[in-house]
Amino acid sequence: MRLGPRPAALGLLLLCAAAAGACKAEELHYPLGERRSDYDREALLGVQEDVDEYVKLGHEEQQKRLQAIIKKIDLDSDGFLTESELSSWIQMSFKHYAMQEAKQQFVEYDKNGDDTVTWDEYNIQMYDRVIDFDENTALDDAEEESFRKLHLKDKKRFEKANQDSGPGLSLEEFIAFEHPEEVDYMTEFVIQEALEEHDKNGDGFVSLEEFLGDYRWDPTANEDPEWILVEKDRFVNDYDKDNDGRLDPQELLPWVVPNNQGIAQEEALHLIDEMDLNGDKKLSEEEILENPDLFLTSEATDYGRQLHDDYFYHDEL
């Protein structure tokens, strides 16, 4: 979608909204740990185009494609889907659609069709104009200054993704820019960027206080707000693997560039818990076909989307 001209402050809000959408997808699905079945349904039948396409599939064709997908998930062909197989499939699906989206964006951003995306083309697609901030000159307006910092961070990431220092990014480099979590050569840059932003005392680590950011403790409150309790739990149980009360550079990575492994594992376990009729901790084709709606409103089929993408149900994956 092409965005019209807008002031820097509004651009900041739009950027933050986009970032929040990407980072909070898990929280929308599992707000404070509670699953929302209506979110699954909305994701499957969220827009009329998807509803129409879904309805077009008759029961027989729907079941045929679902059976084909089940066989592909079953990596060892033993007739059962394990937590590991389901998790691997869901992660593969996430990556496939992320790469497809990046390829579509690349075409939109490549204004002159020369198979590269320059920094100017990126700006024109994002803001309808080329924006150039002075790295050494802060802006007086707080929102505009925040936007300046975000824009400069994007520019640094763009330059890092440009491995051959050419005039623009190739498709592979553009994917590295949009999805640094998928590209090894971006890892160190992402970690250093996170330390620059969050490591306020410069010790090379991120403490709990630095992790929580600008939160101000209320000495009169009897207990912390619920969101603080959630974030503390994540810090302690998800990120601080060595339990030393701070995040080292490697522990930072899952936080600042989250991968989909945790979401995939949680969804795989949820499906087994809900659909495993005989308690063997795995799913047979019969168990899935006994309750196909649950499987079709899960990340295992990308909320039914895979039934309309022959990449997934075709004989050769």
From TrEMBL:
Signal peptide annotation: 1-25
Keyword terms: Calcium, Endoplasmic reticulum, Metal-binding, Phosphoprotein, Repeat, Signal
Keyword Repeat belongs to the record: yes
InterPro entries: EF-hand-dom_pair, EF_Hand_1_Ca_BS, EF_hand_dom
Main location: endoplasmic reticulum
CDD domains found in the cross-reference section: EFh_CREC_RCN2
Location in the cell: Endoplasmic reticulum lumen
GO cellular component: endoplasmic reticulum lumen
GO molecular function: calcium ion binding
Ranges where the EF-hand domain occurs: 61-96, 97-132, 186-221, 233-262
Pfam families reported for this sequence: EF-hand_5, EF-hand_7
Alphabetized PROSITE patterns for the sequence: EF_HAND_1, EF_HAND_2, PROKAR_LIPOPROTEIN
Function: Not known. Binds calcium.
Protein family according to the UniProt entry: Belongs to the CREC family.
Protein name as it appears in the record: Reticulocalbin-2
Species for this entry: Piliocolobus tephrosceles
Protein encoded by which gene: RCN2
